[in-house]
Amino acid sequence: MKMTEKHLQTGDALPPYNGRLRLFAMRFCPYAGRCVLVLNAKNIPYDVVYINLTKKPEWIFNFSPKGAVPALEYQKGKALFDSNVINTYLDEEYPEYPLQATDPLRRAQDQLVVENFNTVITAYFTAAYNPQGLQPSHPEIFHKGLELLQKELETRGTEFLHGEEAGMVDYTLWPFLERFEALPLGNAEFALDKSNYETLLTYMESMKQLPAVTSNYLPPDIYAKFTDSFVTGSGGLRASEALSTKPL
């Protein structure tokens, strides 16, 4: 459930708190997307308040010291921030459908998968939001990281990294994998060719079928349109415009 259809900004009032978990997010933020996926996967009732990150409402700093998203209001006026912190809390506070591996070694291995993936994320952000800073090494870093992820999928031999059902590690990586599909629209060096990524692309198709993912999925052209608005210096694209082909 979403409390606001627009991204609230400076001067806008904080919507009243109704007692449910409340996630402060930005529709195109992959880190906030991680929390949305976990909340959806665990079927936890919650509300979303979207934040304009270029014109932040004054009250967001009461929930997140730096005004960053995501932030989760778990009691009135009390919040957690950082996607990994929030998702670990959600998985332990609402244990009915656990998303983390029960085996300590596998949990550690999952954390290493996420850690290794950070190099891919860095290359993605450069390609998407700072193309003028793109170096010849960035596509190589991007593909080496994805090859490592594909090898991990092949080694585990399950439909998802977590197993035959998706888990925390999958929902942590997915918001970025979803956005990677938009990169070839602006730079073919970042294309995920099927001849090189058959296992990874099969995994991505499996992720797209999950209810937690389908309810929040956006097609590549929407992400490309949004990021291009920043690259071209057009002042940022309003979420309502970017989402004109898919309702919130």
From TrEMBL:
Domain of life: Eukaryota
Keywords from the named record: Oxidoreductase
InterPro entries per UniProt: Glutathione-S-Trfase_C-like, Glutathione-S-Trfase_C_sf, Glutathione_S-Trfase, Glutathione_S-Trfase_N, GST_omega, GST_Omega/HSP26, Thioredoxin-like_sf
Ranges for domain GST N-terminal: 19-98
Assigned protein family: Belongs to the GST superfamily. Omega family.
Protein known as: Uncharacterized protein
UniProt organism field: Plutella xylostella (Diamondback moth)
PANTHER family membership: GLUTATHIONE S-TRANSFERASE OMEGA, PTHR43968
Start and end residues of each GST C-terminal domain: 103-226
Phylogenetic placement of the source organism: Eukaryota, Metazoa, Ecdysozoa, Arthropoda, Hexapoda
